[in-house]
Amino acid sequence: MAMYDNHRPTAELQALDAAHHLHPFTDGDALNRKGARIITRAKGVWLTDSDGHQILDGMAGLWCVNVGYGREELARVASEQMLQLPFYNTFFQTSHPPAIALAAKLAQLAPGDLDHVFFNGSGSDGNDTNIRMVRRYWQALGQPERSVIISRWNGYHGSTMGAASLGGMKGMHEQGGLPIPGIAHIDQPDWWSEGGEMSPEEFGLARARLLADKIEEIGPSKVAAFIAEPIQGAGGVIIPPETYWPEIQRICDAYGILLIADEVITGFGRTGNWFGSQTLGIRPDIMTTAKGLTSGYVPMGASIVSRKVAEVINGSDEFAHGYTYSGHPVAAAVALENLRILEEEHIITRVREVTGPYLKAAWEQLTEHPLVGEARITGMMGSIALTPHKASRAKFAAKAGTVGLICRERCFANNLVMRHVGDRMIISPPLVITEEEISLLMTRARLALDQTLDIVRAEGLL
Ligand code: PMP
């Protein structure tokens, strides 16, 4: 049926891949010398590669396969929708039932007065939508000079020009003249790396107050919005100190700037509630969502917007923005079915009450390992900091990421996908992971850490 061969020998697939495929966020030559790992199928939390290995996916793909792999309902719904109405747009005064139903469903699930939806194709273009929407909002209110958006160093908001500018990944900014004008960054609330002598609580407050300082520096009448991930994901699963978000919320309210919560990872159950904003007690004006919206089965994103903002956008002339695939009917139908599964199978409640606490207890014990400094986790997103000396929260003398990469390779060798960000190891498994699978994940993680310690000692990296 498919126009490709799932059973071709690995070496052949790798050679073809090397010859024609440019990979995202990849050193192409290095990959091509080694050959890509080729994933051919998946079920539940398990990936199968072209050599027949069964690999436990501790990252839910790219933090997205919330309901797990291989759900037939999603395939069925996609196929039925393709036959019914494979495409129609939502421009030019038209709409269609899947997009209508999904917007209404998201309005029902989202907290507070977040009850309007602008559909995007992904998280990145969702954040581009948000940049344009908040600027349009202030323009429509007669304050066009309110255009600056403040975000954070080491935040991640996507890879388009706008979203990568919002992000605070310096390596991305260096390629291609970013950030675009009108974006300012403040430091992140990463206590482990940057907290110095302060307590986490003091540090959380200090880092939140940088927002007020930045607003004053730019001029309060020029600032449109602040954007942040409730918990930084790609930055290393940085769970902020408890003092951080209440102070950020207070500052946004005091200055009357819009708050955008980038929930691309934290949305749809990852933190044990529908949205990370609920877990962290945030009241955003806009939430960026994608990934878990469809569990990654098809691409889709949604900016979920407060009534206050939506009324201004609707109440002014045409908002000159949109994507061909805004509200794509197949994606919308899959999203609705995915939300039904999350809801009816009580998957998020289970994360909050059963599997999340089970994983947390095991994860936090990792600090007993000689290499692990801190172990943090909320719901199904967690990280550990690798360190040569816990008490001083020291960094390795080797280039950042050297030890993290060794550990990631040891995870792969033990058929576990964990990712590394510098010398932090991160997990974000499918939300349907069972207790048995969590135990297996922990066994493999500990084994990988032991092997990493042996290598680090042998190579004199400690
Ligand atoms: N925001 C956050 C918080 C993300 O983690 C990501 C992707 N990892 C994005 C935005 C960008 O989403 P996409 O890759 O779908 O464009």
Automatic annotation (TrEMBL):
Pfam families recorded: Aminotran_3
Cross-referenced Gene3D superfamilies: Aspartate Aminotransferase, domain 1, Type I PLP-dependent aspartate aminotransferase-like (Major domain)
Protein's UniProt name: Aminotransferase class III-fold pyridoxal phosphate-dependent enzyme
Gene Ontology MF term list: adenosylmethionine-8-amino-7-oxononanoate transaminase activity; pyridoxal phosphate binding
Any one Gene Ontology BP term: biotin biosynthetic process
UniProt cross-references to InterPro entries, sorted A to Z: Aminotrans_3 (IPR005814), Aminotrans_3_PPA_site (IPR049704), PyrdxlP-dep_Trfase (IPR015424), PyrdxlP-dep_Trfase_major (IPR015421), PyrdxlP-dep_Trfase_small (IPR015422)
Cofactors demanded by this protein: pyridoxal 5'-phosphate
The organism of origin for this protein: Paracoccus litorisediminis
Keywords noted in UniProt: Aminotransferase, Pyridoxal phosphate, Transferase
UniProt keyword Magnesium present: no
Similarity annotation: Belongs to the class-III pyridoxal-phosphate-dependent aminotransferase family.
